[in-house]
């Protein structure tokens, strides 16, 4: 805390991991020696840079860009870029730290990184988005490459932004290094099923948890926060598995449709028209719109999938969900539940799928995109989806196994943290003090 003041999100992520690692450190002193913890907590580097651009009125604007290259023990740095006004060093470091363990859990050879900017894409024209992303890449290109660091999307960064960044990278570097970014359009090196991967993967993971207790999505009531990339495809897969999704949100408020949300309307409004979720009720007057997001968790449900942003479920929301009979939580977003909320869920015996396991499907398919780019080959949607499904089952099994081996059976927070840590720590030990 002394070394990184004002980084509350980073402290929160570190505390969650370190608490989980106590049984590993007790059983295997080698992980307490060799400076493993000290090194794993310190990013290999954190790059910050100026991003100047010109808005449609001709005014010069300046944002701040970030890239954290957290850990490359098991592969090139890999992790998304977030464009949101809340972005700062603490947010980027918490995301990059988490990403290191998540990427390890996928079983693929990718290290941890993350980046972004405090640029707010809301209300910006297409031209402004392009000029900003080009300026961002004009600095970022110096630090990335298919075998060095491979960024992707996150909040505020989707196929459009990745496309502009890829174009600018190609223009500066020359050649066609497809593997430098993932989440690309299908026509120029993107992977089928990457758009769906995080949401689908989250539902596959929650399904494994439910099945272990003889439960399923069939006939269940589901509340999802957000209406972005992760939320939309989590809703789609949950619907395909027989669930009724009654609520979703954006950063202004939420919609509640007791008969079940019409997903195609949400997709059109958010993906195509880039409108607010409040517009939904104009087309479906039986639904209600409520300004503000927090009360979405007052809606009774069997399964809650927080898929918007960090710290959206606090202890009081968690207690309300428990009181209303929630059976399972799947963290689609990164760190959407506070430490107190997680504690409340675990104590109440609610099935809890932590982010670094439950939302690892996105980065897993990004790694599959890198493989396809290296092979100059494309797998079909079903091939990628089958691989994703197998990866999510594997993450679930490995997390359960680690939770049992280290004395916390069923606690997948502990299980995922330990399983992710061991592979990275072993690779660091093998590579010496670097
Ligand atoms: P998007 O930008 O596509 O969607 C984000 C959604 O969350 C939007 O509906 C947005 O509302 C809402 N939101 C954003 N910030 C806030 C806030 N402060 N309060 C309330 N709602 C908010 O992002 P993604 O779907 O890609 O990402 C969502 C989460 O999932 C993030 O935590 C991200 O790190 C995580 N994640 C994403 C992966 C991916 O593959 N995309 C992979 C793994 C994790 P609005 O439309 O108003 O902005």
TrEMBL record:
Gene3D superfamilies: Glutamate Dehydrogenase, chain A, domain 3, Leucine Dehydrogenase, chain A, domain 1, NAD(P)-binding Rossmann-like Domain. InterPro entries: Aminoacid_DH-like_N_sf (IPR046346), Glu/Leu/Phe/Val/Trp_DH (IPR006095), Glu/Leu/Phe/Val/Trp_DH_C (IPR006096), Glu/Leu/Phe/Val/Trp_DH_dimer (IPR006097), Glu_DH (IPR014362), Glu_Leu_Phe_Val_DH (IPR050724), NAD(P)-bd_dom_sf (IPR036291), NAD_bind_Glu_DH (IPR033922). Keywords: Oxidoreductase. Residues 191-432 form the Glutamate/phenylalanine/leucine/valine/L-tryptophan dehydrogenase C-terminal domain. It comes from the Bacteria. Signal peptide: none annotated. CDD domains: NAD_bind_2_Glu_DH. The keyword Hydrolase does not apply. Homohexamer. Belongs to the Glu/Leu/Phe/Val dehydrogenases family. This is Glutamate dehydrogenase. It comes from Gordoniibacillus kamchatkensis. The lineage of its organism: Bacteria, Bacillati, Bacillota, Bacilli, Bacillales.
């Amino acid at each position: 805390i002394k070394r990184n003041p004002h980084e509350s999100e980073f402290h929160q992520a570190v505390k969650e991991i370190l608490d989980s690692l106590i049984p590993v450190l007790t059983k295997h002193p080698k992980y307490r020696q060799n400076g493993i913890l000290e090194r794993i907590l310190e990013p290999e580097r954190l790059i910050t840079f100026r991003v100047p651009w010109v808005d449609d009125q001709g005014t010069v604007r300046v944002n701040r860009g970030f890239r954290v290259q957290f850990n490359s023990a098991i592969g090139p740095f890999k992790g998304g870029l977030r464009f949101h006004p809340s972005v700062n060093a603490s947010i980027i470091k918490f995301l990059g730290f988490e990403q290191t363990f998540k990427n390890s859990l996928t079983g693929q050879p990718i290290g941890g990184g993350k980046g972004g900017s405090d640029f707010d894409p809301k209300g910006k024209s297409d031209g402004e988005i392009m000029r900003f992303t080009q300026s961002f890449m004009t600095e970022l290109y110096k630090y990335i490459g298919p075998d060095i660091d491979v960024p992707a999307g996150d909040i505020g960064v989707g196929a459009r932004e990745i496309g502009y960044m890829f174009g600018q990278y190609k223009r500066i570097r020359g050649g066609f290094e497809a593997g430098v970014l993932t989440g690309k359009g299908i026509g120029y090196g993107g992977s089928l099923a990457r758009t769906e991967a995080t949401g689908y993967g989250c539902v596959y993971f929650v399904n494994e948890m439910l099945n272990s207790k003889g439960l399923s999505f069939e006939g269940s009531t589901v509340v999802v926060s957000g209406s972005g990339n992760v939320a939309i495809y989590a809703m789609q897969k949950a619907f395909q598995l027989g669930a009724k999704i009654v609520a979703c949100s954006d950063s202004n408020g939420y919609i509640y449709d007791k008969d079940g949300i019409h997903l195609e309307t949400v997709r059109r409004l958010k993906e195509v028209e880039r409108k607010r979720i409040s517009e939904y009720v104009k087309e479906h007057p039986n639904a209600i719109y409520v300004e503000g997001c927090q009360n979405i968790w007052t809606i009774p449900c069997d399964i809650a999938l927080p898929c918007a942003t960090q710290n959206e479920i606090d202890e009081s929301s968690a207690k309300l969900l428990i009181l209303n009979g929630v059976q399972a939580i799947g963290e689609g977003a990164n760190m959407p539940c506070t430490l107190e909320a997680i504690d409340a869920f675990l104590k109440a015996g609610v099935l809890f799928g932590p982010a670094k396991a439950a939302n690892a499907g996105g980065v897993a398919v990004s790694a599959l995109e890198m493989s396809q780019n290296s092979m100059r080959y494309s797998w079909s949607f079903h091939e990628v989806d089958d691989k994703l499904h197998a990866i999510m089952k594997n993450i679930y099994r490995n997390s359960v196994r680690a939770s049992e081996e280290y004395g916390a059976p069923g606690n997948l927070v502990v299980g995922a943290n330990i399983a992710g840590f061991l592979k990275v720590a072993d690779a660091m030990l093998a590579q010496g003090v670097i």
